[in-house]
Design goal:
heterodimer, A: 403 residues, alpha+beta, Butyryl-Coa Dehydrogenase, subunit A, domain 1, Butyryl-CoA Dehydrogenase, subunit A, domain 2, Butyryl-CoA Dehydrogenase, subunit A, domain 3, 4-stranded antiparallel beta sheet, 12 helices, 8 strands, 47% helix, 13% strand, globular, B: 341 residues, 3 domains, 4-stranded mixed beta sheet, 16% strand
Chain lengths: 403, 341
């Protein structure tokens, strides 16, 4: 029996655990079931294949670790955002692989929950959680990256649905996805944000073509997606044509504050792994124990505490019924820049390791070289640093344009 | 539930802001009377000492408001000394909480103690004692993290003006030359660390207040000052600079909140102060930059906040603390050891 077949039991999802009892159950399940080969801080690490990732995430769902706040009617566990935070803290503390369906769980799902029809909720949401449907996000285009109001992919109404023509780019994971959440224009380009509609386009539809793009880390995860006279059923239009985008923006604001909520705790896992690896090395063990590097590692530890504070404050605000507004931009900006600085520090330290290389350094270099490269994207995706600064200036500080 | 317990921490901020305004231009003793009248000196002190017996979280908005308004009084020190003395020297604690007696803390240096019969004899050089020239007592650190309360009129106590950035509550140095202290005025080993842990949260609050005032000033200036036919805030460089200041400000605020939550401990308190020291300096320096030449003038108050933030940073020894923080973090992680690794 493989490690993943062994985790198909469903120990706690149906139980009404809350707070620390829930944390304890999630902690025990993760430690008992996460295969060592999935842990990037392990010498046994081997990146999981797509079927392995799908099986693992389906098992996590059955254990109560995904779909935490979604209503039970749509396959969710119906728990509070505070339990969502607890689960993410436990997920973050382990060096486990990133989800291959985060777009489904953290973008498409919440948007469908907010503006989808009852039929769409029942059709799409359980399939996301059970990992039967992986989703990708078709927002950016060659001529509209950060400026989505300028996108050109066109949706034309037909007798029984819509016809989509255009091109999307930077579409992470499109090659492995079954559905793409496509943002397309129903009116003229001059309408900017008005006249934008969303569709759940099946990627096996006639006229859809996916081409992978090799990224700086050598992987082929993000893609171009071409739509050539693609017929989409009315049942796959998400929200009303003129309302879908506005509703999506509201959801996106919350998602920016809550998605991949485990980041601060994963960041801490990375810092602890880096220190542990350095302490196994004769030269680095002295360097990190005192002086310059102790200060710099201390600065990283402070930033992690601040990041946790941003996340926990946002969760408390949302759980108390407050609107999160543009505040998600603060956490996104803080995390992405702190993480880049940390990744560069990790490389700097590990490059000074002794020879012959200690096995712990080999494991750490493999992990942190990958993290360093991937971190370069963190200030770009989900709204670049410059976009986040603009949002903070416009919407939080409400600075005058002063003409 | 007492009336004080029924209040929320933020409700104290408005009281503090009014009290700060009422204190403008008054000497230290008159300010103490005003602040005590509003219950602000005894927020964290027991009711027996005349305090409100509230948690440190209630002192945070008060300290923030005091620093936002450039209160010229060692409020943070007064609050902490009043609470510290409530068990061992309750009458003195009550006098401090009521504003009749003034006290401060020398944050830098350590006194050396020798025992002579029933008294201790203290000697040493101490510094970073805000407002020490005008107070009745100074709390000083002793070896082992003990602390002693020194009357400023005792023989051998020399309080001198010191070079220092803060204009609002100037710091002084304190020289102790064989000063006799009653054993009852000595707080046991470990006192200082506990005191300083609370002080770190309140320093973070103080910096938050000053930084918020700076950002508010910079934002107003950027919105009203016109250059090249537009308000300064029309320019993306200015907008982004202010956005970064806002990120720093909210980072301080959230770090303080976390340090006071159920998950908060000494690490989170230190982190709140260290974050405040870093971002507070950047915010106040950034605000000064946005003012351009005006920012370099005496009359624009940004420099007063900058001076206070840098002083608070030094009073909490941010440079030493970040090294300690890093060393402690590193020491708590075991070397990587995995079968097969």
């Amino acid at each position: 029996m493989s490690a993943l077949e062994a985790v198909s039991i469903h120990p706690v999802a149906g139980e009404s655990l809350t707070g620390e009892a829930y944390r304890d159950a999630m902690h025990r399940w993760l430690h008992a079931n996460l295969p060592a080969s999935f842990r990037s801080d392990s010498a046994a690490f081997a990146p999981p294949t797509l079927p392995q990732s799908v099986a693992w995430e389906a098992a996590m769902y059955r254990a109560g670790l995904t779909g935490i706040t979604w209503p039970q009617a749509y396959g969710g566990h119906g728990r509070s955002l505070r339990e969502h935070l607890i689960a993410n803290q436990e997920i973050g503390r382990l060096a486990m692989p990133e989800s291959v369906n985060s777009i489904g769980k953290e973008l498409a799902g919440p948007i469908i929950l907010a503006v989808g029809t009852e039929e769409q909720k029942r059709r799409f949401l359980p399939a996301i959680l059970e990992m039967r449907n992986i989703w990708c996000q078709g927002f950016s285009e060659p001529e509209a990256g950060s400026d989505l109001a300028g996108l050109r992919t066109r949706a034309t109404q037909t007798a029984d649905g819509w016809r989509i023509n255009g091109q999307k780019i930077w579409t992470s994971g499109a090659y492995r996805s079954q559905r793409c959440l496509v943002l397309a224009r129903t009116g003229p380009l001059e309408d900017r944000h008005r006249g934008l509609a969303m569709f759940a386009v099946p990627l096996d539809a006639k006229g859809v073509r996916v081409r992978t793009i090799k990224s700086i880390d050598g992987r082929e995860s993000f893609c171009e997606v071409f739509f050539d006279e693609v017929e989409v059923a009315q049942a796959d239009a998400i929200g009303a044509p003129d309302e879908g985008w506005a509703a999506a923006i509201r959801v996106l604001e919350i998602e920016r504050a809550t998605n991949r909520m485990y980041r601060a705790w994963r960041f801490e896992n990375e810092l602890r792994h880096l220190i542990a690896a350095c302490k196994a090395d004769p030269a680095l063990s002295g360097m990190v124990a005192d002086g310059h590097y102790a200060v710099r590692l201390g600065e990283v530890a402070v930033e992690i505490e601040v990041l946790k504070a941003h996340v926990e404050t946002a969760v408390e605000a949302l759980a108390s019924g407050d609107k999160i507004g543009a505040r998600g931009s603060l956490a996104k900006l803080y995390w992405s820049e702190s993480h880049q600085r940390f990744a560069a520090l990790a490389l700097e330290l590990l490059s000074q390791a002794s020879l012959p290389q200690h096995p712990a350094i080999k494991v750490a270099r493999r992990r942190f070289e990958s993290i360093y490269l991937q971190a370069r994207a963190e200030t770009i995706y989900a709204g670049t640093t410059e976009i986040q600064l603009g949002i903070i200036a416009d919407r939080i500080l409400q600075l005058s344009r002063g003409k | 539930m007492s009336m004080a317990e029924a209040l929320q921490p933020d409700e104290f901020a408005a009281t503090a802001a009014r009290a700060v305004t009422a204190c403008a231009g008054l000497d230290l003793r008159a300010q103490a009377q005003n602040l005590a009248g509003d219950g602000l000196l005894g927020i964290v002190a027991d009711e027996e000492a005349g305090g409100l017996a509230l948690s440190i979280g209630f002192a945070v908005p008060v300290i923030a408001a005091a620093h936002a308004g450039l209160l010229a009084f060692p409020l943070l020190e007064t609050m902490l000394v009043g609470r510290l003395l409530q068990s061992s020297l309750p009458r003195l604690a009550a006098a401090i909480v009521s504003g009749r007696t003034l006290a401060t803390i020398a944050w830098q240096g350590e006194a050396v103690a020798e025992r002579e019969g029933g008294v201790l004899v203290l000697s040493g050089s101490l510094a970073r004692a805000p407002g020490a020239a005008s107070v009745d007592y100074i709390l000083v650190r002793m070896s082992g993290g003990a602390a002693a309360l020194i009357p400023t009129d005792a023989e051998g106590v020399l309080v001198e003006d010191a070079a220092g950035l803060d204009l609002t509550v100037p710091e002084h140095t304190v020289r102790l030359e064989t000063v006799e202290v009653q054993i009852g005025s000595v707080m046991p080993a470990g006192t200082w660390d506990l005191l300083n842990s609370d002080a770190n949260v309140l320093r973070a609050a103080a910096i938050l207040g000053s930084a918020e005032a700076c950002l508010s000033l910079a934002q107003e200036h950027a919105s009203t000052r016109r250059q090249f036919g537009h308000a300064l805030s029309y320019n993306q460089a200015i907008r982004h600079a202010l956005a970064r200041q806002k990120l720093g400000l909210e980072s301080i605020r959230h770090a303080i909140t976390r340090s006071l939550s159920g998950d908060g401990g000494p690490v989170q308190r230190d982190a709140a102060f260290l974050a405040a020291a870093t971002y507070g300096s950047a915010i106040s320096e950034g605000a000064l930059q946005i003012y351009g030449g005006m920012g370099f003038t005496w009359d624009v108050p940004v420099h007063r906040h900058l001076r206070r933030i840098r002083t608070l940073q030094a009073q909490g020894d941010a440079s030493g603390l970040i090294a300690t923080f890093g060393r402690r973090y590193v020491s708590e992680v075991a070397p990587f050891a995995e079968a097969g690794a």
